[in-house]
Specification:
Elements lengths: L1 H29 L3 E15 L2 E8 L8 E4 L3 E8 L7 E4 L25 E7 L5 E7 L9 E7 L13 E10 L4 H11 L8 E4 L16 E4 L4 E8 L5 E6 L4 E6 L2 E8 L2 E3 L4 E7 L6 E9 L10 E8 L25 H8 L16 E13 L14 E7 L2 E3 L7 H7 L31 E3 L2 E4 L4 E8 L9 E4 L4 E8 L18 E2 L1 E3 L4 E8 L4 E7 L2 H6 L2 E6 L20
Parallel strand pairs: 1-4, 3-8, 9-12, 11-19, 20-25, 22-23, 24-32
Antiparallel strand pairs: 1-2, 4-6, 5-7, 7-8, 9-10, 12-17, 13-16, 13-18, 14-15, 14-17, 18-19, 20-21, 25-30, 26-29, 26-31, 27-28, 27-30, 31-32
């Protein structure tokens, strides 16, 4: 009898243990969620600066909806195009491992979603957390089609900094008092630079300093002593920006969804495509404080010299006793528009929290000149040649001005084995060596239009030095690499010196980014491992420059086996 009771107890214990293990296993995997969303791209009336425009939006919202997910989650987003333009959506900074079909750049990884059609983007977040964003990647539609993409840590994983009381996405944008697509169309016709924006915005609103805008200025209430996390995103089309909050210190804790060694600053410089996470503690006298953004303009070119504002308001701030109104907010001290020293001082302080893995043995050592150019016209007096001295503006990498294909997307043509869409002979160095930041001969100002890709073997260790040029003007070009993040190992002014400059590379704790600016009249060096097969776009995130050809693409070959190869395309992938 005792033996029988012992056996029953053992069986019961084993059964209990099995059930416990099964439930623990299920709980582990149930942490990851699948998020289903429908994004309807449509025109809606939006009033700014006293005028109402039929603006392209997502779900009638400007900015578009914020996506909040966790590392490990899957997103299934059906994009329905009810607008009159072709459109694609890009999930900026998501690595899209083995899945270029969800990346989104028009004619690069997909053909566009035509009016009246739809396409479902399916992708999984893998080992990423922080602030990213999504935006249209067709022509200039991203002027208004954009939103935040916030990736929280997995359940049970804390932030590597004190937990904030509140988290606030801050989307910095640009607003044109006309249809941005018309602005681009006119520039395409004339060959001149497009008209500058009429306002900057914070979360879609210009703020107190613009006409007909004061009533809609965005306000962020905060309690005294509270620490908040500002997730700052530069979603402007063409402008780097300085950003600050009056009388408050910002503690930088992450950039481009990669944590950093914390450091304090009163101002950040943020380029289009970049994100910066900062902690702010409400430790000032209760009141109203402007947060503001205005241009950092590194080029000798016209720019929007206005300032956008929102208000950080303490919940216990006193009001004007006579009228019941709030006191006038205090304004932050921002650098001058051409203060490159402040911009570089900020970016040079960025470091990873600890030692990181940086490729040391380099397989592909690439040197890319990036900058503007001019196309000469046979008839300089033509209405189509309204650039400097009767020319048309252009831009290039290594003198190759990138032309998007028309008959198919690059990735679809590659996967289908379709010839004649692109070549793989993009030059690893400039065709002609010259004094890149000096007085460049006019014979080198005209680039060659082409659709050339650079081929990389799976697993190749890659170094790219991005060298600004003085052709037309020196400028900070924010270069974005799709499908990857990379270590920013060094930068400097003047021409890169391969004999002496590498000695100053930071190979210990460089910051990781997906978008990095070239110092105006200088260079920046990055490294990464080509561990994501597919075709991946690299381009300037100033959209006027992208339109002129400042881009190229990498073709990363498949490795060995399924886990190192591009997955098959979805059945609903749009066709050209």
């Amino acid at each position: 009898m005792e033996t029988r009771n012992l056996t029953v107890k053992q069986v019961s214990y084993c059964l209990f243990l099995s059930i416990f293990v099964i439930f623990s296993f299920q709980a582990h995997f149930s942490e990851a969620e699948t998020h289903y969303r429908e994004f309807v791209i449509q025109a809606k009336p939006v009033k700014r600066l006293c005028r109402t425009h039929n603006t392209i939006t997502v779900n009638g919202l400007f900015p578009g909806p914020t996506l909040e997910v966790r590392d490990g989650d899957t997103l299934v987003i059906k994009a329905v195009n009810n607008a009159r333009y072709n459109v694609t959506l890009h999930w900026h900074g998501i690595r899209q491992l083995r899945n270029p079909w969800a990346d989104g750049p028009d004619r690069v990884t997909q053909c566009p979603i035509r009016p009246g059609r739809s396409y479902t983007y399916r992708f999984t977040i893998e080992n990423q957390e922080g602030t990213l964003w999504w935006h249209a990647h067709s022509r200039w539609l991203r002027a208004t089609v954009y939103g935040a993409l916030i990736i929280h840590p997995k359940l049970g994983s804390p932030y590597p900094f004190p937990m904030p009381r509140t988290e606030i996405p801050i989307l910095l944008g640009e607003w044109w008092d006309r249809n941005p697509m018309d602005v681009l169309r006119i520039a395409d016709f004339t060959g001149a630079a497009p008209n500058i924006s009429d306002a900057y915005t914070i979360n879609g609103q210009p703020g107190d300093l613009y006409r007909c805008s004061k009533q809609e200025t965005v306000r962020f209430p905060v309690g005294s002593g509270e620490t908040i996390l500002l997730r700052v995103i530069n979603s402007a089309l063409n402008q780097e920006l300085f950003f600050g909050v009056a009388n408050h210190i910002l503690t930088v804790v992450a950039v481009d969804a990669a944590y950093t060694k914390p450091f304090t600053t009163s101002v950040i410089m943020i380029a289009p495509g970049q994100t910066t996470d900062v902690l702010l503690t409400a430790d000032q006298t209760p009141g109203h404080y402007y947060m503001a953004a205005r241009a950092y303009n590194s080029a000798n070119a016209p720019f929007d010299n206005t300032t956008t504002t929102a208000i950080l308001e303490y919940k216990t701030a006193p009001r004007n006793a006579k009228k019941g109104k709030q006191s006038t907010p205090i304004f932050p001290r921002l650098p001058g528009f051409n203060d490159t020293n402040s911009a570089i001082a900020f970016t040079s302080r960025l470091r990873s929290p600890s030692k990181v893995k940086v490729p040391l043995q380099i397989d592909e050592n690439l040197f890319f000149t990036v900058g503007l150019g001019l196309i000469n016209c046979t008839n300089p007096n033509s209405p189509r040649c309204q650039g400097p001295n009767g020319t048309r503006f252009a831009a290039s990498i290594n003198n190759m001005s990138f032309v998007l294909p028309k008959r198919n997307s690059l990735m679809q043509a590659y996967y289908q084995g379709q010839p004649g869409i692109f070549t793989t002979d993009f030059p690893p160095v400039p065709p002609v060596k010259f004094d890149y930041t000096g007085n460049v001969s006019r014979g080198l100002w005209q680039p060659v239009k082409s659709t050339k890709l650079y081929k990389l073997k799976f697993g190749a260790k890659v170094q790219i030095v991005l060298q600004d040029t003085s052709i037309v003007t020196v400028e900070d070009h924010p270069m974005h690499l799709h499908g990857y993040h990379f270590a920013v190992i060094g930068s400097g002014f003047g021409n890169f010196n391969p004999q002496t400059d590498p000695a100053r590379f930071n190979l210990i704790d460089p910051p990781y980014r997906n978008t990095i600016g070239t110092p105006p009249g200088g260079w920046v060096a990055i490294r990464f491992e080509a561990d994501n097969p597919g075709i991946w776009f690299m381009h300037c995130h100033l959209d006027s420059h992208l339109n002129w050809g400042l881009g190229m693409a990498f073709l990363v070959e498949n490795g060995v086996g399924k886990l190192q190869s591009v997955q098959p395309p979805p059945l609903d992938l749009p066709r050209c």
